[in-house]
């Protein structure tokens, strides 16, 4: 991540910062950006330097990277949880106020674009010629512009959270797995025959 992304506070973070982190602009990144801004508005969120903001996503798509950049939620910090359920939905928690919302993309937000759908198949299979690839980029950029110009309330339904707020991240002691001899977090081990074994060894010993 570039230095300017690290130093900016939440009010200064832009879609361009999300692009810098993610590597390219796309509809998914724009949808994540819209979700993060809408959650910030609904829950009065600030950039999460620690675990003040917690997010559970129900997708592992490009959307998640915008949430990381705008709200400061990361797996390493313990305030980003990814459930790959294939739903464009996010639950945001404000630990300071105790408030939370689940944002679910409206079922009818995306209208099918037959031309874009056909070109996508060609582009991602490497079969598109230069003209077709350029047209796909044009359509994709237009979709991004449409998302960024649409209020979050027109993209996402606001729902009650389905899950309680996750516990704060914990620091675990490390032990040595008696099978592989590698260091592993105590709490991530499985007790077998009175010994604590790493999960990899438990699975491979079956």
Describe this structure in words.
The protein has a 5-stranded mixed sheet. It is built from 8 helices and 9 strands. The protein has 206 residues and is an alpha+beta fold. A hairpin with a 6-residue loop joins strand 6 and strand 7 (183-185). It folds into 2 domains: 3-159, 60s Ribosomal Protein L30, Chain: A (2-Layer Sandwich); 174-204, 2-Layer Sandwich (Wheat Germ Agglutinin (Isolectin 2), domain 1). Helix content is 39%, strand content 17%. This is Formylmethanofuran dehydrogenase subunit E domain-containing protein. Pfam families: FmdE (PF02663). It comes from Methanimicrococcus hongohii.
Descriptive terms for the model:
single chain, 206 residues, alpha+beta, 60s Ribosomal Protein L30, Chain: A, 2 domains, five-stranded mixed sheet, two-stranded antiparallel ribbon, 9 strands, disordered N terminus, Formylmethanofuran dehydrogenase subunit E domain-containing protein, FmdEsu_dom, FmdE, tRNA_methyltr_O
- Which structural class should the secondary elements be placed in? alpha+beta
CATH architecture of the largest domain, by name, is 2-Layer Sandwich
* CATH fold label of the largest domain: 60s Ribosomal Protein L30, Chain: A
Instruction: Write down the overall geometry.
Output: globular
Helix content: 25-40%
Give the number of helices: 8
Rg over alpha carbons = 21 Å
| H/E element sequence | HHHEHEEEHHHEEEEEH
Approximately what portion of the residues adopt beta-strand conformation? 15-25%
> How many strand segments?
9
**Biggest beta-sheet profile:** 5 strands, mixed
Report, as a whole number of angstroms, the end-to-end distance.
Answer: 41 Å
Unreliable runs, pLDDT <50, ≥5 residues?
A: 1-5
CATH class of the largest domain: Alpha Beta
Number of domains: 2
Q: Please list the strands of the largest sheet in the order they lie side by side.
A: 2-1-3-4-5
């Amino acid at each position: 991540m570039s230095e300017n992304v690290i130093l900016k506070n939440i009010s200064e973070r832009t879609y361009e910062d999300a692009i810098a982190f993610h590597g390219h602009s796309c509809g998914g990144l724009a949808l994540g950006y819209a979700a993060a801004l809408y959650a910030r508005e609904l829950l009065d969120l600030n950039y999460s330097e620690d675990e003040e903001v917690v997010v559970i996503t129900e997708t592992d798509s490009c959307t998640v990277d915008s949430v990381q950049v705008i709200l400061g939620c990361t797996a390493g910090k313990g305030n980003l949880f990814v459930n790959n359920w294939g739903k464009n939905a996010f639950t945001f928690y404000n630990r300071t106020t105790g408030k939370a919302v689940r944002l679910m993309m409206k079922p009818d937000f995306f209208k099918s674009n037959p031309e874009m759908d056909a070109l996508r198949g060609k582009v991602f299979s490497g079969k598109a010629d230069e003209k077709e690839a350029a047209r796909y980029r044009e359509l994709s950029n237009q979709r991004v512009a449409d998302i960024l110009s649409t209020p979050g309330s027109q993209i996402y339904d606001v729902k009650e959270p389905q899950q309680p707020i996750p516990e704060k991240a914990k620091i675990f002691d490390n032990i040595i797995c008696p099978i592989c001899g590698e260091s592993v977090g105590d709490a991530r081990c499985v007790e077998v025959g009175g010994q604590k074994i790493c999960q990899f060894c438990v699975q491979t010993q079956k």
